[in-house]
Design a protein that fits this description.
Number of strands: 3
CATH class of the largest domain: Mainly Alpha
CATH topology of the largest domain: hpI Integrase, Chain A
Radius of gyration: 27 Å
Strand content: under 5%
CATH superfamily of the largest domain: Intergrase catalytic core
Helix content: 55-70%
Shape: globular
Distance between the termini: 85 Å
Oligomer: single chain
Largest sheet: 3 strands, antiparallel
């Protein structure tokens, strides 16, 4: 066994788990990336992962792997960059343990992320959001669950991982009703609930009859919904909502669009971007910038402040004789 195997094991057990206390989602993402890389290397070189040397994991091979992700696996540039982040994290750790391979490691660390086109975010208007909320069949248990789930996601701006991680005890419906959320990096936040969300969740919790640690939105068997299950439910209800709201046609709806819709509703209501960042659990206020770019109402208000082209430009006239004297000097 070469030095790569013990370094890889120490990277996960010592660096990610013990030192950085990375979330399970981060660990799983990095694990999947490195598994893909080692399988690619084995297929390309015929070398088993346990026999690889650091000198073999050089910059051309890593670059070929990144190209393989985009060309053969059809990954986006954003996904390619996420994979590169995991690889660079491992190699930064390896640089401390294997200075004799510093030159090879440094060339890998110098691989830049790929620039990509940032599309304007998709979001729902108030009418479209209400059409989606009304789409689930209220005569069925799943429909009542899904309606409560959609209302909470749109109003609180939850990520899918945050939504499926909610337990019954995370909802407080007394004075100062709110939902407690654990976001990225185990950052916890509390989001206040609207009256509509309070009313729907009160009814749902009474029907749900779960313990505090039970999932808030379970499957029929009582397990937590998966990410794919939530995406399927949104797709199904979006198709039904489109029959009632024509403006939904052409919009590709997925769970993150509901989060965008929350941000846009707050922005259009005049809420400051720093408050929106806290509401959504953003680590950086700059993460709210895409919503500002997508909001046409802000741009229309800015346009209204611009002097119309039809206004004839005038000549400046000092409002006072003393100012006129000073302006005439020189």
């Amino acid at each position: 066994m070469t030095l790569i195997a013990p370094t890889l094991q120490a990277y996960f057990s010592d660096r990610l788990v013990m030192q950085l206390q990375a979330s399970p989602r981060t660990i799983a993402s990095y694990r999947d990336t490195l598994r893909l890389l080692l399988c690619f290397v084995q297929e390309r070189t015929g070398r088993a992962p346990s026999t690889l040397e650091w000198d073999e994991l050089d910059e051309p091979l890593i670059a070929a792997f990144l190209e393989h992700l985009e060309v053969e696996r059809h990954n986006s540039a954003r996904t390619r960059n996420l994979r590169l982040t995991a690889i660079r994290s491992l190699f930064s750790y390896a640089a401390l343990r294997h200075p004799e391979h510093a030159a090879v490691i440094q060339r890998v660390l110098s691989i830049p992320p790929k620039r990509f086109e940032r599309r304007t975010v998709t979001f729902l208007t108030a009418e479209e959001s209400q059409a989606l909320i009304d789409a689930p069949d209220q005569s069925r248990w799943e429909g009542r669950r899904d309606r409560a789930m959609l209302i909470l996601t749109i109003q609180a701006g939850l990520r899918v991982s945050e939504l499926i991680g909610l337990s019954c005890g995370d909802v407080a419906l007394d004075t100062g009703s709110h939902v407690r959320v654990e976001g990225k990096g185990r950052k916890q936040r509390s989001v206040p609930l609207t009256r509509q969300a309070q009313a729907v969740l009160t009814v749902w919790l009474a029907e749900r009859e779960g313990q505090r640690e039970d999932p808030l939105f379970p499957t029929r068997t009582g397990r937590r919904l998966s990410r794919d299950a939530v995406e399927r439910r949104v797709t199904i209800h979006a198709a039904a909502a489109t029959q009632q709201c024509a403006s939904l046609k052409g919009k590709r709806l997925h769970p993150h669009v509901l989060r965008h819709s929350c941000a846009m509703s707050l922005l259009q209501a005049g809420v400051d971007s720093t408050v929106i960042a806290l509401w959504l659990g953003h680590a950086d206020v700059r993460s709210t910038t895409p919503y500002i770019h997508a909001d046409m109402t802000i741009k229309e208000r800015a346009l209204a402040l611009v002097t119309p082209v039809s206004v004839t430009p005038g000549r400046y006239k000092p409002p006072d004789t003393v100012l006129a004297f000073l302006d005439g000097l020189g």
